[in-house]
Amino acid sequence: MAIRKVTVAGGGVLGSQIALQSAYCDFDVTIWLMSEGSIERCVPKLDRFAGIYAATLAATKADPTKRARGLSDEGASAEELDALIAKVAPARASIVLTSDWDEAFGDADLVIEAVAEDPAQKVEFYTELQKHLPEKAVIVTNSSTLLPSQFAEYTGRPEKFLALHFANNIWSGNTAEVMGHPGTDQTYYDQIVEFADNIRMVPLCLRKEQPGYILNSMLVPFLSAAEALFANDVADPETRDKTWCLATGAPNGPFRILDVVGLVTAYNIVSMNPLAEDPESTPGKICAKLKEMIDQGKTGINAGEGFYKYK
């Protein structure tokens, strides 16, 4: 079955990026959101990313080293880049946003689940999703840390369920980790690898389940170490990031990365640690500090402020 109709469940930091990237690559895209309020919050995210796409392509015309791999080919001509710039606005406009289950999922070929990193919410979502999907649909999870085998039975089609994990800023960090569970049919695994390639991602094929896949198996411990410095007031975010960037040559430090990931996601990951229940433990302190920032609306770059201000 050829994938044409893609529904992204969730319009957060990554969900909105995945939707726009898929629409940019000529797929029919719908975003399912839980409420009208969620729809309203998703719109500015899509608009912001569309602006980044157009600006990045324009910058590539002036300087080919500014090319984002997910947007254009190496050596693209000025005319080709102009044509790609012209695609961005129609791609953004083509995305349907809805909170109606049947409208979102009733004719989907592929569902990309990008709801909150909370096992209970995911189970609730998959349990209801079963009632609205056509037989043809394949489901993938974009979970950052959770395994597909944790949820396969709740989908009602475990053989058509696997993980497809994207990095943030997917137009430039264009990786897509493909990870099945023991019950995933190879046919659908291969189909998802092909889809990833079709939306200009580099498919990274995992041989077996791994919490955190490849990227987050390395990234989460790094961010956790940085969060421990934050919890214990060792230094301010700018100093911690400066230390990392100057010493390693990295373009961004951990707290810039956390702002991109989103502090709600960071909070959900830390809160799954049993030690987080102890307010005197390092995970407990991290949760308390992140919760304070979240309650103030400082949830990261899409909110205009996290550890840094973006307005």
Describe the overall structure.
This protein has 311 residues and is an alpha/beta fold. The chain has 2 domains: 5-205, Rossmann fold (3-Layer(aba) Sandwich), CATH 3.40.50; 218-303, N-(1-d-carboxylethyl)-l-norvaline Dehydrogenase, domain 2 (Orthogonal Bundle). It is 48% helix and 12% strand. It is built from 12 helices and 8 strands. An 8-stranded mixed β-sheet has the order 3-2-1-4-5-6-7-8. It is globular. The mean pLDDT is 96.
Write the topology of this structure.
Elements: E1 5-9, H1 13-24, E2 28-32, H2 36-62, H3 78-94, E3 96-98, H4 101-105, E4 110-113, H5 119-129, E5 138-141, H6 152-155, E6 161-166, E7 175-179, H7 186-198, E8 202-205, H8 215-231, H9 237-248, H10 254-261, H11 263-271, H12 282-295
Parallel strand pairs: 1-2, 1-4, 2-3, 4-5, 5-6, 7-8
Antiparallel strand pairs: 6-7
Helix pairs in contact: 1-2, 2-3, 8-10, 8-12, 11-12
Tally of contiguous helical segments = 12
CATH topology of the largest domain: Rossmann fold
CATH level-four homologous superfamily name of the largest domain: NAD(P)-binding Rossmann-like Domain
Unreliable stretches: none
CATH architecture of the largest domain: 3-Layer(aba) Sandwich
Task: Give the total of domains.
Answer: 2
Beta strands, count: 8
Quick one: overall form? globular
Give the fraction of residues assigned to helices. Answer: 40-55%
Strand order across the largest sheet: 3-2-1-4-5-6-7-8
Q: Which series of helices and strands comes N to C?
A: EHEHHEHEHEHEEHEHHHHH
Instruction: Indicate the proportion of strand residues.
Output: 5-15%
- Let me know the average pLDDT: 96
Q: What's the Cα radius of gyration?
A: 19 Å
**Main beta-sheet strand count, sense and barrel state:** 8 strands, mixed
Structural class: alpha/beta
* First-last Cα distance: 45 Å
Quick one: CATH class of the largest domain?
Alpha Beta
